[in-house]
Amino acid sequence: MDVMHERVMSLIPECRGGVKEFAGKIGVPANLVSMWKNGASKSYKNYLLQISSSYNVSVDWLCGSEEQKESPAAVSREAKDSITKKIYDIVDSADDKKRMKILEILQVIDTMEG
Fold this sequence. Notes:
Layout: H1 3-10, H2 18-26, H3 30-38, H4 48-55, H5 59-63, H6 77-93, H7 96-111
């Protein structure tokens, strides 16, 4: 069987509504994902970047050329908590002028893609 197909299918939740959930997360119609599951279409190959980004897996893993599932860009929950705490500590100790500057920087970051 096709390794790429197996790996993409492994990301679709087995629960009721799993196909719809997966489709919504990557921005495609649910009937297209059903076609992928049934083997009627291999167009999932055109959506590897969306799948990779939405599920924090590398494209190389999806293609079967690497064993590490998690994308190197994925951040662990512990790392996110540490970053959140550090930001909170910086904001908490800043004066009003610095807080406004931090807010401006965060707003710019929020508008960035990726």
